[in-house]
Amino acid sequence: MNQNDLLKLLKNLIIPVLGISFFLTFSCKKEDSQPKEQKINTTANSFGVGPIQSKIELGPLDNALAQKGEKIFNEKCTACHKIEERYVGPPIKDVTKRRTPEWIMNMILEPIKMTQEDPQAKELLAEYLTQMTNQNISQEEARAILEYFRKIDQTN
Asked: Which of 14, 37, 84, 127 could form a disulfide with 90 if both were Cys (CB 3.0 to 4.6 A apart)?
């Protein structure tokens, strides 16, 4: 192949690619500036899928329970979650403002079932491309982790 043939080939490839790139850049709908994981759960019954199917009544913050939750979180969750930054999974900060307590606990207790059946969990899986692992956490431990999340969200 000589130089002229190579230039024609490049010209025939570059012009369409640039045209398509230009079209896509300026014609695509602007995305919501709020990250997907920041969208508030607006479903009326937003419990998710799992063992928690009745409303959890939250009282004042229980610091002892939050401390227990922090220990569990540090042992089982920090490989994938950070408090204020995106990592393997979404950041934890403000999760109690984005999701209901029941949804959070079901996600902790039944992450695979949630990503298979719950629309919001499916969106998170599509965005983060990593399935949250089931850490075999009990309901009591999940409730402690929830209390730790509540503490984070009150102080940050």
From this structure: 37
Q: Show the tokens assigned to 115.
A: 């990503």
Task: Name which of 3, 10, 23, 141 is nearest 72 in CA terms.
Answer: 141
Q: What is the DSSP letter of 54?
A: S
Phi-psi region of 48 (alpha: psi -120 to 50; beta: other; left: phi over 0): left
Q: In the block, which residue shows the tokens 């004042």?
A: 60
Residue 21 CA to residue 124 CA, distance in Å, equals: 28
pLDDT in tens, the chain (156 residues): 677 776 666 566 666 655 565 555 555 444 444 444 444 444 445 899 999 999 999 999 999 999 999 999 999 999 999 999 999 999 999 999 999 999 999 999 999 999 999 999 999 999 999 999 999 999 999 999 999 999 999 964
CA torsion through residues 60, 63, 68, 74, sign: positive
The reply to whether the predicted model has a pTM over 0.85 is no
Percentages (nearest 5) of helix, strand, coil residues in the chain: 55, 0, 45
Nearest CA to 132 out of 150, 118, 143 is that of 118
Question: Rounded distance, CA 81 to CA 70, Å?
Answer: 12
